[in-house]
Structure to design on (1168 residues):
C-alpha cells in the first residue's frame, strides 16, 4: 500500500474533524498551510439589475448543442406563458375551495365575544386534516379582511416560535404590532411610550396597542397547535384568559388530528378556558382532483400530462401528507422538464417560422417513434409517395407536423371532454363508489377507457334517466358531439316530445327501474319472482326510442374519441409522460444511496483498473469504511470489536501479504469505525459488554 | 362605617360571605392599625378577591391589586407592584424618581415602596393596602419570594400586604409568627342553594310564573344533590348547569303534555320522574366542559336527537383525521410495541393458565418504547397494500421518514427519553440518534379505530389478541 493512496483513503479533510476517531498526524509543510481558511470571496451584490441573458441561460441548447438560440428562447417563453396561465387557475381553485370556511370563520370571529362564550376565550377549532397549507391561506385572507375593515388582525404563532412563555408572548406582541404598523412602527411603538420601559413580554404593551388602535378582534392563530408543548399552551391560554377583559382575544387552533384527541391532551383546567366552534377545511384530495381536472380539461390546452405521471402524482397525493401547493409544484416540475429537455416543445410556441426548425430538428422529428408509426400506416394505406415526400422534403414535413400537432391537440381535448362527460353522467348513479376525474383520466390516457366497465356503467345510467335529468345532460354535451346532425335531430325530437306531454310527471324509459314490475307467484309453496315491464304509455315508448338513439350516438362517439394518445403522430410534443425526473426529485432515496455506496463503492468511485469495478467481493482497494460496512453486514446484532478488527486486518493481509503495516491498518480501522458510528449504524453495546458493538441499522429496510 | 355595616352592604351582592367581610373590614379599618401581613386563602371561585376589593372600596382605603397570574417572571411581578402602587397613589407620572420604574429585587422594592409612600401629602398619609392575588401561582418565583413579601409590611409601617392564596397554606410558610389568616371555605349546600335562589329564575317562555316559583327551588336543590355536591362543583358551574337544564326540565309543562295520573297538573315529583334520564345523561355531560359545546335542545324530543347527532359527529370526526400512510406507520408503531410487549407478557400469563388475563387498553398504555429500525421492519409486515414486487421497490424507510417527522411534530409519537421531560425539548428539534427509542403518545383505542380505517386489524398482530 503506498502512503499517498493511504492519505487519500483517509482523506482527513476539515469537515470530518467533527466526528473522526483517529487521524494520521502530518506536520505542516513549510510554505503551504493546508488549514488556512479559504480566502473570503468578495460578495457581489445580486440585488442590482439582473443580467438579461442569465434568464434565457436557464435553458441550454439541445440537439447536441445545435439548437438555435431562438428555439431555446421559444421553449422558455412558451413554458412561462403556459405555466402562468395554469398557475392562475390553480390559485383561483384554491381560493374558491377556502371561501366557504373563510366566511364561516370570519362570521364566527365577528359575532362571538367572551360574553357569548360564558367568559371563556372564543375559540375556533379548524381541523385541516392533511390539507395543512390551507390554514395559512385561510389565515392570511382572514387577516386581510380584518385589517382592511379596521377591526383588528390575525397573529400567527408557530410552535417553532414558542419555545417558552416569554418568547411566545414577545412574538405575539411583535407580530400584532408589526401586522398593522410595520417593523419600524413596532420600534417606534416601543420607544415612543411614556412611562417606564416595559419588558418585551408584558401584555400591557399589547393592551396599549389595542386601546390606541381601537382593535375589536385580535385573533391569535396557533397554526400547528398539536406541536405546542401542552404545559406552555396552558400557560399561554390562562394568561390570555386573564387579560380577556382588556384585550379582545379570539383563539384559532389548527388541528391536524381530531378535536377529541386534542382536547384529551390538554389539562381539564385548560379546556375549561376555551369555548367555541369547530370548522372543517375541505380535504386536500378533493382540491387536488379539481386542480388536475382544471389543468387537463382546459379547452385551450396545449400540453397534457401523461398517464404515468398522473398515476405517480395521485399516488403521492393520496399516500402522503401532501398539500395542493406541493401537488401543483410537482405538476410545474413535470411541465418544466418537458420544455427543458425536449426540443420538440418549441413547436408549441406561437412562432411557426420554418427557419426555427431546421437541420437537426427535422432529423429529430424523423427519428420519432410516432413518425415511424405514421409512415408505416401510410405505406399500408398505399401512399408510399407521401412517405418519400415526408422523408425528403423538409418543408412538406414541417407542414404535416404542424397539421398533426393541431389534430393531435384537438384529439386530446376531445378525450378530456369525453372524460368530463362520463364523469358528469356518473354523478347521477346511485352507487356509492364514484370514479373521480383522475381515475377516468388515467384510464383514458392509457387508452383503456373505451372498453372499460365505466363506459358501460355510464351508458346504463343514461338509459335509466328520466326526461328531466336527460334535459340537463343534453345541455352539457360537448360541442363536438352536439354538432353532429343525428344529435341535433335527436334534440329536436326530444323537444317536441316534451312539448306534447305537459304533464308534471317526468318521462321514463323502459330501462328505468320504476318501469319494471316484480311479479310474485307461488308455485308449489315456493315464491317465484319474475320481472315484467309495466305498461308504458305511448310517450314513454317514444322517449325510450330517443334514449336508444342517444345511447347509440354516444357509443359511436366514445369509440371514435377514446383512442390511445400514444398512437397520435407528434404526441411526443404535447404529451409529457416521463416518470423518472419526477420520481427522483420528489422521492429521493438517501438510505438506499448510502447502502449502495457502502456496499459497492465502485458504483460511484472511478477506479484505475477495470478489474475493481466488476468485482463484488471485499478488497483493500475499497475505502476503509466500505470494507468495514460489508464486514459489519455479515455480523449479527452484537459483534465483538476484536473479531471485527481481525477480519478487517485479514482483508489487507490477504492482498498485501507481509508489506501490510498493521499500525496504519489499525488507524484506518478506527477511522472507518467512527464513520459508521456517525452514520448511525453502530453504537456501543451495553455497559456489561464493553468490548461489543451493537448493530443499529439493517440492510434493506 | 362599622364592620357589620360593610358586611351587610356587601352581602346584598355577594351573599354568604358576611363573616369574612366582617373580619376584613375590621382588619382594614382606617382608624385602627392593620396587621403588616394578612393571608387570605380558599379554593377558586369562593369570592376571595371580590370580597377584598369590595371591602377596600367600601372603606375607601387606598389600595393596589396585582394579579400575579399575569406576571411572567418574579421580576415582572415586582415591577408590576411598583407601578400599580404608583398608579394607586396618583404618582404615575413621577415614575422616574423611583428607580426609573425598574425594580429587580425585593429589597429594592422595599426601598422604593417606602419612598413612594413617604412622598404622599400629609392628609393622605394613612394605611395603604397591597393585594397580591394568586401569589402562590407566581411563575418563576424565587423560593424566598413569599416570605420576603410578607416582610414588606413590617419594614414599611403604613403598608399592609394581603397575600391571596388558592391553596391551603402550610403552617409557618411565611416564616413569621402571628400572621392573621382568613379562610374562605367552599360554600355549603345551604349557602350554594341560597346563592342560586337569590339570582332571578331563568326565564322560559310559556312557563307560568307561579309554576316556576314553586318548582325552581326544588329543582336547584336536586341539581346540587345529584351533580354539584358529589363533584365539589363551584358556584359558576352550578349556575351554568341550572341554566342549561332548567328549560329542558320544565319542557313538559311548557308543551302542555299530559301529566302521569291525568291532567296537565305537573308538580316537581312528576317532573323528576319524567326527567330522570335528563339528569343522568345531559347532566353528567354538562359537568365536563367541552371546547365545542353540544347544542342544548329545548324539548326532550330534541335532546335525544342532539345526542344522536353528537354521537354521529364523534364518529365522523375520528376517521376524518388524515388517513394517510403516515398514520399507517403509527399503527405499526403500536403493533410493534404491543407485539413485543405481548410476546413476553402473554407467554408468562398463558403458561400459568390465566386464560386471557390481560385486558386490552391497559396494556396499550404500558407499551414499551422501540427503536425506529424495529418500526420499519414491522411496517413491512403489516402494510395492508404491500408492493407487488418487493425486491425492486426502493427502501421503505426513505418513503416514510418524512411522515414520521410529521407524526413527531403532531406529538403522536415521541422519543422515549423526551416523554417525561418533554417540556424542555423544543418542538423544532426533530433529530434522532441511532438506536433512540420512541413511543406512541395516543391511546390504543384511537389507534385501533384508525387502523380499521385503513384496513388493518390491530388485534391480529398481537400475540394474545387485543381483548
Amino acid at each position: 500500500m503506498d502512503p499517498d493512496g493511504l492519505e487519500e483513503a483517509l482523506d482527513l479533510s476539515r469537515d470530518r474533524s467533527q466526528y473522526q476517531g483517529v487521524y494520521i498526524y502530518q506536520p505542516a509543510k513549510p510554505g503551504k498551510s493546508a488549514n488556512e481558511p479559504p480566502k473570503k470571496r468578495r460578495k457581489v451584490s445580486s440585488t442590482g439589475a439582473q443580467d438579461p441573458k442569465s434568464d434565457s441561460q436557464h435553458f441550454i441548447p439541445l440537439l447536441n448543442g445545435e439548437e438555435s438560440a431562438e428555439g431555446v428562447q421559444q421553449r422558455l417563453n412558451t413554458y412561462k406563458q403556459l405555466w402562468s396561465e395554469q398557475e392562475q387557475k390553480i390559485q383561483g381553485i384554491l381560493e374558491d375551495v377556502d371561501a366557504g370556511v373563510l366566511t364561516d370563520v370570519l362570521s364566527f370571529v365577528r359575532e362571538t365575544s367572551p360574553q357569548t362564550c360564558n367568559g371563556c376565550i372564543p375559540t375556533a377549532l379548524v381541523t385541516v386534516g392533511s390539507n395543512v397549507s390551507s390554514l395559512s391561506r385561510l389565515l392570511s385572507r382572514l387577516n386581510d379582511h380584518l385589517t382592511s375593515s379596521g377591526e383588528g388582525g390575525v397573529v400567527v404563532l408557530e410552535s417553532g416560535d414558542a419555545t417558552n412563555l416569554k418568547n411566545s408572548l414577545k412574538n405575539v406582541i411583535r407580530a400584532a404590532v408589526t401586522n398593522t404598523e410595520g417593523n419600524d412602527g413596532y420600534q417606534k411603538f416601543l420607544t415612543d411610550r411614556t412611562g417606564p420601559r416595559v419588558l418585551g413580554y408584558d401584555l400591557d404593551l399589547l393592551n396599549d396597542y389595542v386601546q390606541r388602535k381601537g382593535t375589536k378582534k385580535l385573533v391569535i392563530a396557533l397554526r400547528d397547535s398539536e406541536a405546542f408543548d401542552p404545559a406552555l399552551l396552558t400557560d399561554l391560554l390562562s394568561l390570555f384568559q386573564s387579560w380577556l377583559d382588556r384585550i379582545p382575544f379570539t383563539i384559532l387552533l389548527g388541528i391536524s388530528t381530531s378535536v377529541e384527541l386534542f382536547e384529551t391532551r390538554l389539562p381539564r383546567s385548560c379546556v375549561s378556558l376555551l369555548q367555541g366552534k369547530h370548522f372543517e377545511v375541505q380535504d386536500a384530495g378533493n382540491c387536488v382532483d379539481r386542480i388536475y381536472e382544471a389543468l387537463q380539461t382546459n379547452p385551450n390546452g396545449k400540453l397534457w400530462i401523461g398517464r404515468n405521471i398522473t398515476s405517480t402524482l395521485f399516488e403521492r397525493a393520496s399516500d402522503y401528507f401532501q398539500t395542493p401547493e406541493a401537488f401543483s409544484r410537482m405538476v410545474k416540475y413535470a411541465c418544466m422538464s418537458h420544455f427543458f429537455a425536449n426540443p420538440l416543445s418549441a413547436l408549441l410556441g406561437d412562432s411557426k417560422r420554418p427557419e426555427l426548425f431546421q437541420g437537426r430538428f427535422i432529423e429529430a422529428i424523423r427519428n420519432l417513434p410516432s413518425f415511424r408509426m405514421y409512415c408505416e400506416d401510410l405505406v399500408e394505406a398505399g401512399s408510399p409517395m407521401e412517405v418519400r415526400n415526408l422523408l425528403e422534403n423538409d418543408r412538406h414535413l414541417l407542414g404535416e407536423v404542424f397539421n398533426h400537432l393541431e389534430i393531435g391537440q384537438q384529439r386530446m381535448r376531445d378525450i378530456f371532454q369525453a372524460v368530463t362527460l362520463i364523469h358528469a353522467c356518473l354523478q347521477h348513479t346511485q352507487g356509492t363508489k364514484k370514479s373521480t376525474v383522475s381515475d377516468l383520466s388515467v384510464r383514458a390516457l392509457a387508452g383503456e377507457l373505451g372498453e372499460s366497465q365505466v363506459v358501460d356503467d355510464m351508458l346504463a345510467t343514461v338509459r335509466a334517466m328520466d326526461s328531466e335529468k336527460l334535459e340537463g345532460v343534453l345541455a352539457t354535451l360537448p360541442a363536438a358531439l352536439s354538432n353532429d346532425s343525428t344529435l341535433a335531430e335527436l334534440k329536436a325530437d326530444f323537444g317536441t316530445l316534451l312539448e306534447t306531454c305537459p304533464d308534471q310527471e317526468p318521462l321514463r324509459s323502459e330501462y328505468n327501474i320504476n318501469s319494471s314490475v316484480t311479479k310474485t307467484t307461488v308455485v308449489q309453496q315456493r315464491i317465484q319472482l319474475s320481472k315484467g315491464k309495466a305498461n308504458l304509455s305511448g310517450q314513454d315508448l317514444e322517449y325510450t326510442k330517443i334514449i336508444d338513439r342517444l345511447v347509440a350516438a354516444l357509443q359511436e362517439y366514445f369509440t371514435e374519441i377514446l383512442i390511445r394518445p400514444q398512437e397520435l403522430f407528434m404526441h411526443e410534443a404535447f404529451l409529457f409522460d416521463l416518470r423518472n425526473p419526477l420520481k427522483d426529485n420528489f422521492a429521493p432515496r438517501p438510505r438506499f444511496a448510502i447502502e449502495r455506496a457502502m456496499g459497492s463503492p465502485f458504483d460511484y468511485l472511478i477506479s484505475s483498473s477495470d478489474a475493481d469495478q466488476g468485482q463484488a467481493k471485499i478488497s483493500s482497494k475499497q475505502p476503509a469504511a466500505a470494507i468495514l460496512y460489508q464486514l459489519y453486514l455479515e455480523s449479527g446484532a452484537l459483534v465483538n470489536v476484536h473479531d471485527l478488527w481481525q477480519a478487517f486486518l485479514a482483508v489487507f493481509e490477504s492482498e498485501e501479504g507481509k508489506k501490510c503495516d498493521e499500525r496504519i491498518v489499525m488507524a484506518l480501522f478506527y477511522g472507518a469505525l467512527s464513520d459508521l458510528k456517525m452514520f448511525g449504524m453502530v453504537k456501543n453495546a451495553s455497559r456489561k459488554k464493553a468490548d461489543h458493538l451493537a448493530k443499529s441499522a439493517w440492510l434493506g429496510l | 362605617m362599622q364592620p357589620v355595616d360593610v358586611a351587610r352592604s356587601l352581602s346584598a351582592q355577594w351573599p354568604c360571605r358576611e363573616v369574612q367581610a366582617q373580619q376584613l373590614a375590621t382588619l382594614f379599618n382606617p382608624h385602627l392599625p392593620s396587621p403588616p401581613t394578612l393571608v387570605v386563602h380558599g379554593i377558586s371561585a369562593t369570592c376571595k378577591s371580590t370580597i377584598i376589593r369590595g371591602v377596600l372600596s367600601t372603606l375607601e382605603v387606598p389600595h393596589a391589586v396585582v394579579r400575579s397570574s399575569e406576571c411572567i417572571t418574579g421580576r415582572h411581578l415586582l415591577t408590576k407592584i411598583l407601578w400599580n402602587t404608583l398608579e394607586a397613589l396618583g404618582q404615575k407620572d413621577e415614575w422616574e424618581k423611583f428607580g426609573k420604574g425598574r425594580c429587580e429585587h425585593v429589597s429594592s422594592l422595599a426601598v422604593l415602596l417606602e419612598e413612594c409612600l413617604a412622598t404622599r401629602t400629609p392628609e393622605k398619609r394613612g394605611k395603604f393596602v397591597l393585594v397580591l392575588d394568586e401569589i402562590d401561582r407566581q411563575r418563576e418565583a424565587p423560593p424566598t419570594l413569599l416570605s420576603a413579601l410578607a416582610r414588606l409590611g413590617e419594614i414599611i409601617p403604613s403598608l399592609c400586604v394581603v397575600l391571596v392564596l388558592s391553596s391551603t397554606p402550610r403552617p409557618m410558610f411565611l416564616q413569621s409568627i402571628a400572621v392573621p389568616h382568613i379562610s374562605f371555605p367552599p360554600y355549603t349546600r345551604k349557602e350554594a342553594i341560597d346563592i342560586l335562589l337569590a339570582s332571578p329564575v331563568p326565564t322560559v317562555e310559556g312557563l307560568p310564573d307561579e309554576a316556576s316559583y314553586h318548582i325552581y327551588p326544588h329543582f336547584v336543590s336536586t341539581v346540587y344533590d345529584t351533580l354539584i355536591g358529589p363533584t365539589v362543583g363551584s358556584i359558576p358551574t352550578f349556575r351554568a348547569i341550572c341554566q342549561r337544564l332548567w328549560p329542558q326540565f320544565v319542557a313538559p309543562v311548557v308543551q302542555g303534555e299530559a301529566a302521569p295520573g291525568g291532567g296537565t297538573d305537573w308538580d316537581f315529583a312528576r317532573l323528576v320522574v319524567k326527567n330522570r334520564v335528563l339528569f343522568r345523561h345531559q347532566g353528567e355531560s354538562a359537568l365536563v366542559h367541552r371546547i365545542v359545546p353540544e347544542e342544548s335542545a329545548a324539548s326532550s324530543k330534541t335532546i335525544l336527537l342532539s345526542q344522536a347527532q353528537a354521537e354521529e359527529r364523534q364518529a365522523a370526526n375520528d376517521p376524518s383525521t388524515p388517513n394517510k400512510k403516515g398514520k399507517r406507520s403509527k399503527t405499526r408503531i403500536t403493533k410493534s410495541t404491543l407485539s413485543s410487549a405481548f410476546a413476553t407478557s402473554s407467554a408468562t400469563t398463558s403458561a400459568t393458565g390465566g386464560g386471557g388475563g390481560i385486558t386490552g387498553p391497559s396494556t396499550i398504555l404500558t407499551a414499551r418504547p422501540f427503536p425506529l429500525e424495529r418500526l420499519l421492519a414491522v411496517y413491512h409486515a403489516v402494510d395492508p397494500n404491500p408492493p407487488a414486487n418487493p425486491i425492486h421497490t426502493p427502501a421503505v424507510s426513505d418513503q416514510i421518514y418524512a411522515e414520521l417527522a410529521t407524526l413527531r411534530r403532531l406529538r403522536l409519537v415521541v422519543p422515549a427519553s423526551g416523554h417525561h421531560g418533554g417540556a424542555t425539548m423544543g418542538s423544532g428539534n426533530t433529530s434522532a440518534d441511532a438506536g433512540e427509542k420512541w413511543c406512541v403518545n395516543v391511546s390504543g383505542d384511537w389507534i385501533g379505530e384508525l387502523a380499521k380505517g385503513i384496513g388493518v386489524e390491530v388485534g391480529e398482530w398481537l400475540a394474545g389478541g387485543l381483548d
The two ends of chain A are 36 Å apart (CA to CA).
